[in-house]
Each structure stands twice: as structure tokens, then as C-alpha cells.
Amino acid sequence: MKKKNIKFKFINNVDIKQLMLIFVSIFFLLAVFLFCFFKISNSASSRSLSSKKLLRLDDGEKIRISLNEREFEVEVVNTQLSRNQGLGGRSEIGSDGMLFVFFEKQVPIFWMKDVRFDLDFIWLNEGKIVDLENNVTQHNKGLAEEDLPLLLPNQKVNMVLEVDSGFIERNGVKIGQKITVPRDD
Questions:
Q1: What is the three-class DSSP state of 95?
Q2: Tens of pLDDT along 101-143?
Q3: ∠ CA 73-79-81 to the nearest 5 degrees?
Q4: No. of helices (H) and no. of strands (E), the chain
Q5: Distance between CA atoms of 102 and 28, rounded to whole angstroms?
Q6: Beta bridge partners of 70
Q7: Which of 38, 54, 149, 158 yields a CA-CA distance of 20 to 30 A from 23?
Q8: How far, in Å, are 49, 68, 72, 136 from residue 185 at the CA level?
Q9: In Å, how far are 53, 109, 152, 157 from 139, measured between CA atoms?
Q10: Among candidate residues 111, 142, 108, 136, the one with its CA nearest the CA of residue 121
Q11: Higher pLDDT, 138 or 44
């Protein structure tokens, strides 16, 4: 048998360099697509905790939040009246916590007036934890109002999450972590 020399002819006489450029371009576009797909699918289960969205909720509405792959139910307080009242006068939190939402970043001042249980404070900036205050003791009835300790974060925040004392330690809460809202809320 005779050996035949086979020559590859490419469509429209496309040379190897052009073909490689096409394959590299396709590979690059596929990589970009996959990156975007996985980025979107990872964020599809939760979204950022946005003060603008929370300010539109009904005052006192309960929502689910996610922290360290655990979900918690919190009561949103987003009016001046409810922020002033806070947990004062209640015998229990009534959920996993109370989320105070402010119109703009500020250094809010809290106190434990009429609060009947110990709390942890988680200071937030658009869902990112920026400061923590552990085991704040309940209002000592023997103290005059002017003698109550004042609690404030080390920087401006737009949200504060009050939770039962020990929450920070039990749940491994650390500065820099993000609190998100599950997608089904």
C-alpha cells in the first residue's frame, strides 16, 4: 500500500495561530462565565444586611439573619420611638435578638435602663461586625439614671444587634464577620 500524505485543511484556510487564538478566547470566556456563575450561586442563598432595606420594613417586624452558617430570628426596630424603648421593660427578648437600624452611620449611645436581663452588643456597619461588647449586665435598680454606664462602639455604625448575654461566645462571633439575610426573607 502506498502512504498517503494527509494535509489538514481548515475552514477558509484558517492557520494554526488563528485557531489557537479562537480556542484561547473560548477558554477565557468559559472561565469568566464559570466564575460569574459560581459567584452568583454562592450569593444566591443569602444577601447583604442593608440598612436601607431594613428601614423600609415595618417597625417591630421579625426577620431571619445568618451568622456563621446559623440562622437567627431578630426583631427590627427602625423608628426613633422603638429605638429609644429598645428592650427596656421587657421580661425577655422575645426572639434571638433586637436589630436597631439607623438612617445614617453614627456613634449611637446605649444604656441598660429598665432592661431586665444581661446582653451582648454587636455593632454593625452594613452587616459587617465592627465592634463587640460582651456580657453587659442588666439595669441595677439601685443606680440613678445618670449613673448608668453608657455603651458605644469604637466607630460609626448604622446597625446594632442586641442579643442575650453569652451569644457572642457561644456562636464564635468575631469582628470582621458578616451577617446576612437568607434569600427566602
A1: coil
A2: 998 999 999 988 888 889 999 999 999 999 999 999 887 777 8
A3: 110
A4: 4, 8
A5: 44
A6: 67
A7: 38
A8: 11, 18, 12, 30
A9: 32, 15, 16, 24
A10: 136
A11: 138
Looking at residue 129, the DSSP 8-state letter turns out to be E
Torsion of CA 93, 96, 100, 101, to 10 degrees: -150
| CB neighbour list of residue 148: distance below 8 Å, 6 or more residues apart | 111, 112, 113, 139
Tell me the CA distances in angstroms from 60 to 27, 28, 69, 83, one per residue in order: 51, 49, 24, 10
Q: Which position has the grid cell 421579625?
A: 62
Q: Can you tell me which residue has the cell 423608628? A: 79
Q: Are residues 54 and 101 in contact, defined by beta-carbon separation less than 8 angstroms?
A: yes
Q: Give the residue among 106, 110, 111, 121 at the shortest CA–CA distance from 158.
A: 106
For the entire predicted model, the pTM comes to: 0.71
The size of the chain, in residues, is 185
